[in-house]
Specification:
Layout (H helix, E strand, L loop, with lengths): L26 H21 L1 H6 L1 H16 L4 H20 L8 H33 L7 H9 L9 E6 L1 H4 L3 H4 L4 E6 L5 H6 L1 H4 L7 E5 L2 H5 L4 H17 L3 E5 L23 H18 L2 E3 L2 H4 L19 H20 L8 E4 L2 E4 L3
Parallel strand pairs: 1-2, 1-3, 3-4, 4-5
Antiparallel strand pairs: 6-7
Helix pairs in contact: 1-3, 1-5, 3-4, 4-5
C-alpha cells in the first residue's frame, strides 16, 4: 500500500542488458543504482584529477536530478537529466588525460560506471515506453478495474443505506468490511488516480450502482502531478453535479496532510516536495466553502490527522502519505458521522438542468 506509486517499477532486471520492456528498475533498486553512480563519479575524480575540476558541474547536476527522482521516481525529465549528465561525464573522462600507470582497480571504477550507463539507458527507454502505453491506453480511467464487479453488484436493499466511496489509493487500501461490518459500503478507490479519472468513472462505478450517498476522497495525486488547483476544483464540481442530478447525496472529504517524517527509511517518503501543505490547505478551504454553498457534507479528516507543525502525524502513516491501521481508525468514525449527517438531509428536488463544470447545460429529454 505505502509503495503503491512505485509498483510500476517492480520488474526484475536481468544481468545482461535487458529488453526495453523489462528494464524498469524497482523502486529501491532504482535509488540504489543512481546512488552508486554518484559514488562512482565522485571516486573517479580522485584517480583522475582533471575530472575533479571539469566534472564537478556534471556531478552536481546528477545529484540534483537524483534528489528529484527520489521524490518522483517516474518523472521522465529528472531521469533524463540524470542520464545525460552521466553520459557527459563519461565522455569527459575519455577526453581528459589519465595518470600512468593506471591501476586495474581504477579502471574497474570506470567500467562499472559504463555498466551503470547501460542500465540507466535501458531504464529510461522502458520508462518512456511505459508512459507512451499509458497515453495510448484505450482505458485511461481504468474502467476495467471494477467492470465485472459493477455488473455483478445487486440492487441496493431498501433497509440498507448504500454508500459508494470513490477515491485513490487511500480509499483503495481501506478494508471497509473490517471498519464498517454489515454495511452496504462499496469501495471504488483506484491507486494513483487523479480527480479527472474519478470523474470518468462516475457512470459505471457510482451512478449505475444507485447509492444513496457518494463519499469522494481525491486530489492528493493531482497536487503531486502539478494539476492546477482550479482544475481539481472543476473536476470535483463536475463529480458533485453528476451525483446531485442523479439524487445521490454528496460527501467531499478533505485531502489528508502529508509529512517527511519517514524519509530516512526511504527517500521517496519525502512527501511535502510534491504535495506542499499550503496547496493541500487551499484545496480543503475551497472544498469546505463549496460544500457549504451547495448544501453538501464536508468531511474533515485533515484537522484530526494533522500535528502541531502542520504535517500528517508520524504514527498514523508509515510513509507520510497513506494511513496505516491507526490512521484508518481515526478516519472511520469521522466518515460514519459524515454519512449519518448526509443521510439525515432531505434530498433536493431533481434539477431540471445539469450543472457541468459549474455551468448550466440543458439536458436532452
Amino acid at each position: 500500500m505505502k509503495k503503491f506509486w512505485l509498483a510500476c517499477f517492480a520488474i526484475t532486471l536481468s544481468a545482461q542488458q535487458p529488453e526495453s520492456g523489462q528494464a524498469l528498475l524497482a523502486g529501491r533498486e532504482l535509488l540504489d543504482t543512481y546512488q552508486r553512480v554518484i559514488q562512482l563519479m565522485e571516486s573517479t575524480t580522485v584517480s583522475v584529477p582533471e575530472l575533479a575540476r571539469a566534472g564537478a558541474p556534471l556531478i552536481e547536476n546528477a545529484r540534483q536530478a537524483f534528489t528529484n527522482v527520489r521524490t518522483t521516481p517516474a518523472d521522465a525529465v529528472s531521469n533524463y537529466a540524470f542520464l545525460t549528465n552521466l553520459r557527459a561525464y563519461l565522455a569527459l573522462s575519455d577526453a581528459v588525460p589519465k595518470p600512468f600507470p593506471f591501476s586495474i582497480e581504477e579502471q574497474k571504477q570506470f567500467n562499472d560506471l559504463r555498466d551503470a550507463l547501460v542500465r540507466t539507458e535501458s531504464h529510461f527507454r522502458a520508462l518512456i515506453e511505459l508512459k507512451d502505453r499509458q497515453l495510448r491506453s484505450p482505458d485511461r480511467d481504468n474502467l476495467a478495474r471494477y467492470g465485472e464487479m459493477d455488473s455483478r453488484t445487486p440492487p441496493a436493499q431498501a433497509d440498507k443505506l448504500r454508500v459508494v466511496l470513490l477515491g485513490d489509493s487511500i480509499t483503495d487500501g481501506w478494508r471497509l468490511n473490517e471498519y464498517f461490518p454489515d454495511r452496504d459500503f462499496i469501495n471504488r478507490g483506484i491507486s494513483g488516480q487523479i480527480t479527472g479519472q474519478m470523474l470518468g468513472r462516475m457512470e459505471p462505478d457510482v451512478i449505475k450502482l444507485q447509492p444513496a450517498i457518494m463519499l469522494v476522497l481525491g486530489g492528493t495525486n493531482d497536487i503531486a502531478r502539478g494539476v492546477p488547483v482550479s482544475t481539481i476544483e472543476d473536476n470535483l464540481t463536475a463529480i458533485a453535479d453528476l451525483a446531485e442530478f442523479h439524487q445521490i447525496k454528496v460527501i467531499l472529504a478533505s485531502v489528508l496532510p502529508v509529512s517527511d517524517y519517514h524519509k530516512d527509511v526511504n527517500p521517496s517518503y519525502e512527501m511535502t516536495r510534491t504535495r506542499p501543505p499550503a496547496t493541500i490547505r487551499a484545496l480543503n478551504d475551497w472544498m469546505k466553502a463549496f460544500c457549504a454553498r451547495r448544501d453538501f457534507t464536508y468531511l474533515d479528516y485533515y484537522s484530526q490527522m494533522v500535528d502541531a507543525d502542520g504535517y500528517l502525524k508520524a504514527d498514523i502513516a508509515d510513509d507520510g502519505l497513506h494511513p496505516n491501521g491507526q490512521g484508518y481508525r481515526i478516519m472511520a468514525p469521522l466518515a460514519l458521522a459524515a454519512i449519518d449527517k448526509a443521510a439525515a438531509v432531505e434530498p433536493a428536488p431533481k434539477p431540471k438542468k445539469h450543472r457541468l463544470f459549474g455551468k448550466s447545460a440543458a439536458l436532452l429529454p
